[in-house]
Amino acid sequence: MQATRSRRKVAPAAAYGGDSGDKLEQLLLSSAICNGEDLGPFVRKVFASGRPEILLHLLRHFARSKESEIEEVCKSHYQDFILAVDDLRSLLSDVDSLKSTLSDSNSGLQSVGGPLLSSLDSFVVAQNVSKNVNSALQSVTLCIKLMELCSTANLHVSNGSFYMALKCLDSMANEFQDKIPSSTLKRMLERKIPEIRSHIERKISKEFGDWLVDIRVVSRNLGQIAIGQASAARQREEDLRIKQRQAEEQSRLSLRGCFYALEEDDDEVELGGDDNESYNNGNNGLFGFDLTPLYRAYHIHQTLGLENRFKQYYFQNRKLQLTSDFQVSSMTPFLESHQTFFAQIAGFFIIEDRVLRTGGCLVSKMEVENLWETAVSKMCSVLEDQFSRMQTASHLLLIKDYVSLLGVTLRRYGYPVDALLNVLSKHRDKYHELLLSDCRKQIAEALADDKFEQMLMKKDYEYSMNVLSFQLQTSDIVPAFPYVAPFSSTVPDCCRIVRSFIEDSVSFMSYGGQLDFYDIVKKYLDRLLGEVLDEALLKLISSSIQGVSQAMQVAANMAVLERACDFFFRHAAQLSGIPLRMTERGRKQFPLNKARDAAEEMLSGMLKRKVDGFLTLIENVNWMTDEASQGGNEYVNEVIIYLETLVSSAQQILPTQVLKRVLQDVLSHISEKIVGALLGDSVKRFNVNAIMGIDVDIRLLESFSDNLCPALSEGDANLLKNALAESRQMINLLLSNQPENFLNPVIRERSYNALDYRKVMTISEKFRDSSDRLFGTFGSRGARQNPKKKSLDALIKRLKDVS
Questions:
Q1: Residues ≥6 apart with Cβ < 8 Å to 547
Q2: Which of 34-38, 409-413, 601-605, 658-662 has the lowest mean pLDDT?
Q3: 389: exposed, middle or buried (C-beta count within 10 Å: 0-12, 13-18, 19+)?
Q4: Which residue has the higher pLDDT, 707 or 22?
Q5: How far is residue 199's CA from residue 193's CA, in Å, rounded to a whole number?
Q6: pLDDT given for residue 272 in this prediction
Q7: Fold assignment, 602-770+785-801
Q8: Is CATH 1.10.357.30 the right assignment for the domain spanning 428-591?
């Protein structure tokens, strides 16, 4: 059956009469109805214009125009409808037969499927029960596991195994919290897991806080042990150097048959460093140095996800502890507290070094370096302040030694300590000034206590302590005891003071970052000897010497001190670690030369005054005697007796060269006095017999010099005789047959170089006085005496012309 689709048509213009406007309206309305458009605008328009009847008329006209079309469509479909009804009637019979067939099939199916459906229902019920039982078993199993895990977590918490407890909590949260069927257990987990985490955090924070308190005491002990080990190592080095110096000294003494092996006992227990891993898991039980609580707290906080917060908390607390360690108590002298102060800081940074190297990322290298820079700055400030207040060299040295040990200790851990060493070097001059001041007081006390008596040593140890220890011996043979030394107690006392000064100076300069410091030690040693000791001796000589014996003892002491000075410079070189040949090559003059010269001048002056007392007897000489004295005049015999007595005692204590210089000065003074007597106003004239007597006197003095040859060398004896050159040459000139030869430059230079022409002229004029009587004596002895008189007159005339 096929339906004919109606075609939309536009209504033709109505035959209705009207004007063109009404036709247009009819066309628009017909078109809108055919196109299925909305007629609302037309309705509003006609009501607005007040003419609704027109619209009704148009609608009725349109409806009448469509009736014919409807009729045609109905006619075209009527045949199809009849055919369809016929088909439905035939189909109805087929449906009735199918219905009966279906009814029969349904009855058979019901009879067969009934038992099966009942069995299926039973199976479904059993399957649901099984599923419920399995689900219940799984839930019970899950709850049992959860409860076991909770029990394990409680056990770990009670045993302090916080990490395992946290792992249990993580397992509960990740594996059970979302799967647990029990709402009660789920609420319990949601409440208890955060509580247990907070509990563990509080417990571990408390343990860490206790560790922070304990580690301060541990740091101090650790620093003291580390610095003590550095001190022990330094002492071993010093012992090795002493053995080496002894070996060098014995080698210098040509003991070629001896061999020395310097061995170092390697029994030092190291605290740390790259080559010594004595720590196990961050702890060192030997020194109570245990980092386990720290690493445990760090690990727990990492597990809790609070790693960064713990790092910051640790760093801030350690920084506060370091700041607290910087506090210097004003109630306790720094000398008493400096070891604790520096040991605390040393222990702090030893621990931080270990934490840096074994603690993972707990602290960074930059943070430790910043802490160290802060500590160095503070320690430098404290040292500057304390050093500026100190007025005792030994106190400053004690602190310097401990600071240098601190530097050695921390340098092993990679910390730069140059700033600390620079502070020590900066106060080098102040230390030595204080040391010089102390030595000045000690030397003054030693000199004040000196009794100017030779030192008596009864035992071998006294000889070793006072002589051998300063290399004052003149022979390697040990003398018999009791031994009387040529020096007084001042010498070993001053030597001990100087040696102590050298050792203190070297101790201050050692381990201060400067390897070659001998020149500095030598500079201050020169000051000690040249300014302090020399000035003290000069003061002693100028104010406290009474009598020849004391002056002689001081001169003897100066000779011994000259040998001691050689020892001082060698000792300073040995302690400074430089070869002895360098000190011998750079040796200057004797630093105590002013005191030595003053002592010898003092002794010579006293001897001269003593001799002057005997030389007053020269006034008793008969200058116009008729016979020459054969045994010497009285004054010279007294002088020689005194000098022989003096020499016999002086040889016991005075070195040969000192005795030679003193006697040379005394004999030169005697010679001047003899010439001065001839030149003086008290002697108006003299004859040849008196001159011959003076010649005998000079010969006796020369014989005295010659008799000293066992004690003095021949050259030294000749030097003593040369001290009488002026008087000897004057007497030779007056006894010469050709006095005029004095005018000959060659002869004068050879035979009369010690004479002053003015003195020659004056004395020669006295020799010429009463010439008749004077030269009459010559005439009695020989016929030809006038040439000598003429020569003497010519000499006097020429000398007057020159003057």
A1: 606
A2: 34-38
A3: exposed
A4: 707
A5: 10
A6: 45
A7: Methane Monooxygenase Hydroxylase; Chain G, domain 1 (1.20.58)
A8: yes
